[in-house]
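User: Can you help me understand a structure? I only have the sequence.
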Amino acid sequence: MSVDSDGTEEHSWSVDPEDEQGADIVAAFGRQMRARREALGVRVAELAARIRYGEGLIYKVEGGKRIAKPEYLDRVDEALEAGGLIKAMKEDLTRVRYPKKVRELAKMEGDAVEIGAYRVHGIHGLLQTPGYARALFRMRQPAYSESEVERFAAAREARWSIFERNPVPALGFVQEEGTLRRHIGGTMVWRQQLERLLELLEFRCVTLQVMPLASEAHAGMDGGIEVLKFGDGTAVGRSEGAFNGRPVSDPKRLQLLELRYGMIRAQALSPRESREFIEYLLGET
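Assistant: Let's start by predicting it. Here is the structure, written out as tokens:
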């Protein structure tokens, strides 16, 4: 029998009390599940035996204290003869596991038709490997618990579904040379990350440029920039060095960010030169 434990993995499926929207979704599902179980006259102990999960987990899920996993939903749906109504909640409940800010970012990326970004300190989240992402989260101070690392890494990985969209949005990235040279996670993780970048460059919608350290001064000296454009003609952007780092959608402010990002791209290595530079780094080791 699968038993509800207090292990790292289980903690990563706990409800974030500060995420009111997510907590409401989890609570609503718990009430729905309990109503279905009671309508059939099934006791908690009986359901636990049917689905091979501990009674404690059932109480937590029904009480809105724990996010149900996909395999749990499958078993409950079958045990309570719900005809797919319970397991239909998989996508919503899995999404709630991720932090609210990450969900909002993923939604914007999912709606975007064009994304342009310049990164100074690390590889852009959409370009990262799982190993690189975990290594970054483990470096944070104050330190994240291992369950938090897994939660944030899973949220970042979910964003990578953008490459499965049809059509895939136009994706343009400029990376500071230092982000490619730094061995985040060790040499093996670093090499896998660079290899991943080369794989992504096979996508015709992806453009990657490198800002060389030899550029003594350039338009990105104030920090990273990101601009997302949508199909209805609207856009949102953010820059570490402008407007207090807050997202902006005002056309005049966006024009400033786009101008700065355009200058950054013009001052960076060309896409072809950037690919050759990544290949050169891999050949050094």
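Now, to help you interpret it: The first helix runs from residue 8 to 11. DSSP finds 13 helices and five strands in the chain. Let me know which part you'd like to focus on.
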